[in-house]
Every structure is written in structure tokens, then in C-alpha cells.
Amino acid sequence: FPPDSSWDAAYERELQTFQDIGDAGEIWFGEESMVRIIRWLEKQKIPLDSPVLDIGTGNGVLLIELAKSGYTDLTGIDYSPSAIQLSEKVREKEGMSNIKFKVEDFLAPSAELSGFEICIDKGTFDAISLNPDNAVGKRKQYVRSLCGVLKPEGFFLITSCNWTKEELVNEFREGFEILEELPTPKFCFGGRIGNSVTALVFQRK
């Protein structure tokens, strides 16, 4: 093939990344945020049979990628029945029968939603925080729910577009300690460097 076709591929990727970052709705499902999560799990040598919960799974793509990386005990929940229908379609197309999808309200989780070693959130806590109806109470309930579904010493990986590291550490101080901050793209606005995305790993006490 011609020597410049690899450049085309690189530009395609650049463009895709720009579109992901340019559109806040997409960023939570952006490829780089999935890669960041999977790399961390691999670096920590998290056993492949560890129970993983994706909170607000959306189209289920993160769990598909985790399944492709060898993880076997995967559950995705979403408040929206149509999101779960979509994720089930994606799962069937990919032939990933070992992923469970359930319609669940994380603020009122069912009793069987428990015993997870890893919980992942990309944008769901943000969405709950933006709820005009009692956002503070809903955030507190989120933390309580998280304590209920995640085993002690389990890990919680959160990707947020709304909250700084300091704010998230404060929100999750009841029951969680911060383990590390994952690198995210930095953006420059008028000479000031800002992060529009924060990705943190917490451990349940």
C-alpha cells in the first residue's frame, strides 16, 4: 500500500479522538477512557475472574472490551431499559455471552447486586450530580449504594467531566480512600492548562 496510508490512519484516529473530546456526551465512552481503565486493571494484575460492575453501562462497549481482554465475570447496569436493549444487541453481535446486563437504578439497587471487586463509573455520577431534584441527597445515596455493592478493599474507578480530583475525594470520603489519579488528556485554554476529565481510582475501606 502507498507509504502515506498510515498517515491517513493516524489522522482518522486524531479526528476520532477530537470528536470524542469535542462532544461531552461521547467522552465518557471515548476509546481512550476505556484503554485507561483496562491498562490499570492489567497493571494491578486484577484476576480475570474478579466480579466487575459497570455502573451506567450505556451501550455496554466497555464490558465488551473487558471481555475481549479476558475478563469473565462482567455485569452492566443502566437505569434506561433502551440502553440495556442496545447493550444486549451489541453483546450478541460480538458473541459475548458471559456479560450480564440488567436494568437497575443504582440509587435503589436490588439485593442481588453485591459482592463486586471492581466498580467502574464513566459519567453516571456526573449525570446524578446534575439532577436538579435533590442532587446532594442523590450523591450521598450513590456513595451508600457503592458501599453496598463493592466488597471491602474493592476498587472503584471513576471518570468524571464535572468534578475535580479534590471534589471527588471529598464526595467519596465516607468509606473510600484515593489510591491514584489516572492520566487524562490536558487541554490548554488561553494559556491555562486544564483537565476536562478526571479519572481516579478509589479503594473501599
TrEMBL record:
Organism of origin: Nycticryphes semicollaris
GO MF terms held by the record: protein-lysine N-methyltransferase activity
Catalysed conversion reaction: L-lysyl-[protein] + 3 S-adenosyl-L-methionine = N(6),N(6),N(6)-trimethyl-L-lysyl-[protein] + 3 S-adenosyl-L-homocysteine + 3 H(+)
Protein name in UniProt: EFMT2 methyltransferase
One Pfam family, short name: Methyltransf_31
Keyword Lipid metabolism: no
CDD domains: AdoMet_MTases
Gene Ontology BP annotations: methylation
GO CC, alphabetical: cytoplasm
Entry annotated with the keyword Methyltransferase: yes
Domain spans labelled Methyltransferase: 51-180
InterPro entries: Efm4/METTL10 (IPR026635), Methyltranfer_dom (IPR025714), SAM-dependent_MTases_sf (IPR029063)
Transmembrane residue ranges: none
SUPFAM superfamilies per UniProt: S-adenosyl-L-methionine-dependent methyltransferases (SSF53335)
Assigned keywords, A-Z: Cytoplasm, Methyltransferase, Nucleus, S-adenosyl-L-methionine, Transferase
Top-level taxon in the UniProt lineage: Eukaryota
